[in-house]
Write a structure and sequence with these properties.
This protein is α/β, with parallel strands linked by helices. The protein has two domains: 182 residues, Rossmann fold (3-Layer(aba) Sandwich), CATH 3.40.50.2000; 140 residues, 3-Layer(aba) Sandwich (Rossmann fold), CATH 3.40.50.2000. 37% of the residues lie in helices and 16% in strands.
Length: 332
């Protein structure tokens, strides 16, 4: 079988779809499935003001072993407009057995849907949390127009919707109800999280050798992550446990860090909340090894692969009920 993945971007810093498309493609190769990944070449999230183009070093681990094709992003950059991507889909779509469309509301999804439908190739849609009721309320007019123009038709003609949790399936039950659903969670390489660096390594490099309790949040700095709530909760906990640190590790494509620094200062923990930027590879493992508690305070979270990684490390993890994995964790 040959699968063509279409994602809105392939930089590791954008999280979910990029990393999942690469890691799943590597995994299914062992089952004889060939995969290619097509994407615009934008390096940052669609809502970022950045116009950078992604470099090979910024791609998820494993991308170098796959058939990855990146195409120039054009204005309007926010929509990930890429005529080159559209033309490539038209040329190559028929060579694949199925097209896997990741995320919603952007040009690459329309391009993949249109070209797959024209070629008669079945396609699967992974909303990647974009249909969560919390997010549906944001940009309502723009999203309603997108639905009417093409997205509703894309759902109705899909061979299946791919969802990553039972909770996501419940939240999108009103979308194209006659289309089959497949609930397939995102996977991780569990063994990578069993041999962690020394606990003191990250603390020595990033926390000045601090030896007390450390709470870690690892992921994109985004409004939906509810980091203001986490900072305020940390301030309350610190009153009880004494000296502690909250480490927030991740890229700030939305420019929220100055506001979060102000919140921390107002809560009296300005010196105890540490922003370390994006960490990956060995440095991410070192951050996990240094932590005593892992926390995610999201207002909405489609899956939360970082939660699974923290659990794989054996870290006590605190997550909000809005994380779609929460019901599964409660059942366990």
């Amino acid at each position: 079988m040959k699968v063509l993945h279409v994602v809105p971007g392939l930089a590791s810093r954008t999280g979910g779809p990029a990393v999942s498309a690469v890691e799943s493609s590597v995994a299914v190769r062992e089952c004889g499935v060939e995969a290619a990944i097509l994407a615009p070449d934008a390096a940052d999230a669609p809502w970022s003001k950045s116009r950078r183009r992604v470099t090979a070093a910024e791609l998820p681990a494993g991308a170098e072993s796959l058939d990855v094709r990146l195409f120039p992003t054009r204005t309007p950059w926010r929509l990930r407009f890429s005529p080159g991507l559209y033309r490539a889909l038209g040329r190559h779509c028929r060579a694949f057995d199925v097209v896997h469309i990741h995320s919603l509301f952007l040009f690459p999804q329309w391009a993949a849907y249109h070209q797959a439908a024209q070629a008669g190739v079945p396609y699967i849609v992974s909303p990647r949390g974009a249909l969560d009721p919390y997010l549906r309320r944001r940009g309502r007019l723009r999203k309603a127009a997108t639905d009417r123009l093409w997205q509703n038709a894309m759902f109705e003609r899909a061979a299946a919707l791919h969802l990553t949790s039972d909770e996501e399936a419940r939240l999108v039950a009103d979308i194209a109800p006659s289309v089959p659903r497949a609930v397939v969670p995102n996977g991780i390489h569990w063994e990578r999280f069993q041999q962690l660096p020394a606990r003191a390594d990250f603390r020595a490099r990033r926390l000045g050798g601090f030896a007390g309790p450390v709470v870690l949040n690892l992921g994109r700095i985004s409004y939906k992550k509810g980091l203001e709530v986490l900072i305020r909760a940390f301030a309350l906990v610190r009153q009880r446990v004494g000296d502690a640190r909250l480490v927030i590790a991740g890229p700030d494509d939305e420019g929220l860090q100055p506001r979060l620094v102000e919140v921390a200062r107002n809560e009296g923990v300005g010196a105890e909340v540490i922003f370390v930027g994006m960490v990956s590879g060995r440095e991410k493992l070192a951050a996990l090894a240094a932590a005593d508690v892992w926390a995610l305070s999201s207002y909405t979270e489609n899956f939360g692969i970082a939660v699974v990684e923290a659990l794989a490390c054996g870290l006590p993890s605190v997550i909000s009920p809005a994380v779609n994995l929460a019901p599964e964790i409660e059942r366990e």
